[in-house]
Design a protein that fits this description.
CATH class of one domain: Alpha Beta
CATH architecture of one domain: 3-Layer(aba) Sandwich
Shape: globular
Strand order of the largest sheet: 9-8-7-10-11
Distance between the termini: 55 Å
Structural class: alpha+beta
Radius of gyration: 25 Å
CATH topology of one domain: Rossmann fold
Length: 551
């Protein structure tokens, strides 16, 4: 939402493992750290899986040392095994290409599951009632899914499909027949506006969905634009309070931080947005959802794993991973021409030399001139916080009260201002921290898909809360409990970043962290001044600090 979208260079590949001149994509990361060896089939008999052995490799090959497969010796490049909501993969040799929009029509081959089954709750498939295990619906480059009940039995490296029925190839990009309803995550920008019209060309009824998650956006203007472009309906959902209470507060309780510096502002927002999109899809009886995330970023993973977890039957249209879309729109120029041809209002202001994404918790900047990690961010880049050098010379002294690890009240000691509502509390902290230039970082991080990327972030209120909670937690929590909790927090941060918020393992970790917070109660006083947060003192009725022992 609110992203100034960037278009992928589809020819760029992730780092590969090589062997005698051949190269292959890195084996996908799966929950639990597993990888799928090359040549390994997924035949299942009963509840056991049999695996064909991988090709023999010479001793000392890097793949032996690192647990990663290498490419066949003839030099063919094999595709990255797609990731699924449940961690499954599409067997090698099995095609997921579609002549239409990256989805494959299918018939259900497995028996109906009883309502309330865990697979309904978590988006994972259960096996047929005879006990055989079936793989989860995979996350595919075309945005489609491998149908439920489809066989993936392999014989001598080849795969067959029992129920797969491919649509006939179309000779024209325009489809007159009605194909169903799609809920499009719409921002009002150039990319998603073109996607809206393109989906209508293909024969879909499009319902535009906008989430108000705290970004600076003219929602009514976006609504009018979507309707003029042919959207059947437009939903604008204010989810700021849910974002704070159900996503930001658990992250505060965990002291969640990715790779020691990133406070996960975008990572937390995506499952919140996608959950609401799924709710709209179910309300409208829509079979499809779509988004404008690119094929190189993390957002595609976060959106789609959430959708599959909460709505396993949904089909996802991901244009920027579909050849029929990205071959037609190779850059901003192609999109602009398409927009003019179809009467889509085009931006009149110059394009920013970087992309931005904003929500209540933070704003991120990446791409463009920032792709050179040596390039200094210009002062004009920062929009959410004041330059610390120009911030006020007088600090704001705040007192933040926590109960069970959740902030419940903030008081400005200087002027007596108090807020206890979750949304108002967070907005107030954003204002104070922004005024003093708190929360700026410039980092290089490791993306889910294996590449490194540079990101610049402004996270004002999140930075204050991270420091305050860390202090009161240390003051009140048992040492050994905290050690375990820190280990869980590291895993939790990675799960959030990689899009597994609604996975069973993430639910388990959240419940453990919540249990650890039962005694985290008290008040922390701090001074906010020129980009820094200074802890002044703390108090708690549940403190484990004993003055008599330290005298």
């Amino acid at each position: 939402m609110g992203r100034q979208e960037r278009h992928p260079n589809t020819s760029e590949e992730s780092p590969m493992c090589t062997h005698r001149g051949s190269s292959a994509q890195r084996a996908p990361w799966l929950p639990g750290g597993r990888t799928v060896p090359r040549g390994q089939g997924t035949r299942s008999v009963g509840s056991r899986h049999r695996s064909q052995p991988p090709r023999a490799r010479p001793k000392g090959h890097p793949a032996h040392q690192r647990g990663r497969p290498c490419a066949p010796r003839e030099g063919a490049v094999s595709q990255l095994a797609p990731v699924s909501a449940g961690g499954g993969t599409v067997p090698r040799g099995q095609s997921t290409r579609s002549s239409e929009v990256g989805t494959v029509p299918y018939t259900l081959g497995d028996e109906a599951r009883p309502r309330g089954h865990t697979a309904h709750q978590r988006g994972r498939l259960c096996g047929p009632r005879d006990g055989a295990l079936s793989q989860p619906a995979p996350y595919t480059p075309g945005g489609g899914t491998v149908p439920r009940g489809q066989s993936t039995r392999s014989s001598e490296g080849e795969t067959t499909s029992a129920h797969l029925r491919r649509p006939e190839a179309s000779s024209s990009p325009k489809m007159s027949q009605h194909k169903g309803t799609v809920i499009l995550a719409y921002s009002g920008g150039l990319d998603t506006s073109c996607i809206l019209v393109w989906l209508k060309e293909l024969g879909y009824d499009v319902i535009a969905f906008l989430a108000n998650i705290g970004q600076d956006e003219d929602f009514e203007a976006a609504r009018e634009k979507a309707l003029k472009l042919g959207a059947k309906k437009v939903y604008i959902e204010d989810i700021r309070k849910e974002f704070v209470e159900q996503f930001i507060w658990p992250a505060v309780q965990a002291n969640a931080i990715y790779e020691d510096r990133y406070l996960l502002g975008t990572s937390l927002a995506r499952p919140c947005i996608a959950r609401q999109q799924v709710m709209v899809a179910k309300k409208e009886g829509a079979q499809y959802v779509s988004h404008g995330a690119t094929g190189k970023g993390n957002d595609q993973i976060r959106f789609e794993l959430t959708c599959y977890a909460l709505y396993p039957e949904v089909k996802i249209i991901s244009p920027w991973r579909m050849p029929e879309f990205y071959n037609r729109f190779r850059g901003r120029t192609d999109l602009m021409e398409y927009a003019k041809k179809h009467g889509i209002p085009v931006p009149v202001t110059p394009k920013s030399p970087w992309s931005m994404d904003e929500n209540l918790m933070h704003i991120s900047y990446e791409a463009g001139i920032l792709e050179n990690p040596k390039t200094h961010a210009p002062p004009s880049l920062y929009t959410k916080t004041t330059d610390p050098r120009k911030a006020p010379d007088t600090p704001d002294v705040l007192e933040i009260e926590f109960k069970k690890g959740v902030p419940v009240r903030v008081t400005n000691v200087g002027d007596g201002t108090t807020h206890s509502s979750s949304l108002e509390l967070f907005l107030y902290l954003n204002g104070i921290a922004s005024k003093h230039g708190v929360g700026r970082i410039d980092i290089v991080e490791n993306r889910f898909i294996g590449m490194k990327s540079r990101g610049i972030y402004e996270t004002p209120a999140g930075t204050i809360l991270f420091q305050a909670h860390l202090d009161i937690e240390t003051f009140t929590m048992d040492r050994e409990v905290r050690r375990l909790k820190q280990e869980l927090a590291l895993r939790f941060s990675e799960q959030i970043y990689n899009g597994f918020w609604f996975s069973p393992e993430c639910e388990f970790v959240r419940s453990c962290i919540e249990k650890s917070q039962e005694m985290v109660e008290g008040k922390v006083q701090m001074s906010i001044l020129k980009g820094q947060v200074y802890i002044l003192g703390r108090e708690s009725p549940l403190s484990l600090y004993n003055r008599d022992l330290v005298r």
